[in-house]
């Protein structure tokens, strides 16, 4: 497929471009801080940028009438609503984490959440020093899955690709679930799966849970 990437000069943008090209897909369009790169119209747009770029992405998806895969974190509620509106016309896949491991993590949380009433529960996330948002989108997803107002601690250290730990403790024991992304490749592979997932869809709002 011919892909377009919003944020194509960023860490995730480059990782996604590299993986798709290894799989014989073609990077034909991009948008970044210094404007548009145009070779030909894309068949799909992938956005890994910042929430302030969202309206541009929305305009380009409408212009090219193509599916959107969006992993940008820190989106505002009205931006999520705008994605749902966009999904009436094109397929949209939105997730704050495109790794398989975090999907399994969320399933474990779902299994545990009504068995840990009265326990102390805390989320700790660690990311590279360049990450702009805090807490991470994934930590927010874990909190939402728990259905509880639990504290989130954020560490910004070196070049960590993404660690998430959920601690649960009663007076006698500590239980934890942890996930470590060893590189950004894990996220890029989830984006590729999502791009393949939407190829036969006309429209609809999906999360990465629907994809796997
Ligand atoms: N959902 C997921 O699985 C994952 C999500 N992310 C999220 O993806 C986003 C990007 O992460 P990274 O690639 O590490 O960041 P980055 O900072 O390396 O890349 C962001 C790109 O957006 C561009 N950009 C910034 N402002 C812009 C503007 N006003 N107009 C056009 N382009 C602009 C930057 O120039 C840069 O190339 C973040 O929100 C991050 O949290 C990151 C990894 C995995
Ligand atoms: O910015 C990152 O790098 C990451 N962001 C996502 C998040 O905020 O949860 C996903 C991953 O942990 C890497």
From TrEMBL:
> Do you know which CDD domains this protein is assigned to?
DHDPR_N (cd02274)
> Sorted alphabetically, which Pfam families does this protein's record hold?
DapB_C, DapB_N
Give all residue intervals belonging to the Dihydrodipicolinate reductase N-terminal domain. Answer: 1-98
Report which reactions are catalysed by this protein.
Answer: (S)-2,3,4,5-tetrahydrodipicolinate + NAD(+) + H2O = (2S,4S)-4-hydroxy-2,3,4,5-tetrahydrodipicolinate + NADH + H(+); (S)-2,3,4,5-tetrahydrodipicolinate + NADP(+) + H2O = (2S,4S)-4-hydroxy-2,3,4,5-tetrahydrodipicolinate + NADPH + H(+)
- Which pathway is this protein engaged in? Amino-acid biosynthesis; L-lysine biosynthesis via DAP pathway; (S)-tetrahydrodipicolinate from L-aspartate: step 4/4
Please list the GO biological process terms of this entry: diaminopimelate biosynthetic process; lysine biosynthetic process via diaminopimelate
Q: What class of enzyme is it?
A: oxidoreductase
Record's subcellular location: Cytoplasm
Active site (UniProt):
127 (proton donor/acceptor), 131 (proton donor)
- Keywords for the protein's UniProt record, in alphabetical order: Amino-acid biosynthesis, Cytoplasm, Diaminopimelate biosynthesis, Lysine biosynthesis, NAD, NADP, Oxidoreductase
Q: Tell me, in one coarse class, where this protein mainly resides.
A: cytoplasm
Protein name from the UniProt record: 4-hydroxy-tetrahydrodipicolinate reductase
Q: Which gene encodes it?
A: dapB
